[in-house]
Write a structure and sequence with these properties.
The protein is mostly helical. The chain contains 3 helices and no strands. It starts with 17 loop residues before the first helix and ends with a helix.
Length: 121
Amino acid sequence: MKLDTHPFERYHHPLLPQQKFLMRQARYGLFTVVLIVASLLVGVLGYHFFNELSWIDSLVNASMILTGMGPVDPLKNDGAKWFASFYAIFSGVAFLSIVAIFLSPLVHRFLHKFHLDDGKK
């Protein structure tokens, strides 16, 4: 017996009931919050230890970089510049990935409903 490990309903399955869909969206939302907190933690620790910023200033810089706004405080040394460079690249990929993860149940539901309404099976 083969188990279906696909996280979403397949093309030939009916649309997931509203309550189950909302639970799925909540799970994906919780996962994205965990990813955001982990990404922020990397940035806060990096800015605090490499650039010698206070914890709150490190949080502000990490938040601004993670969302693509840019740094707030100047970088004090080469170590901080190296960290900021890699964190900026990581943040760009992480932010787009986190948004994609969060939206995937919603987009899948829309496309699945679109295909069901199309009448093709």
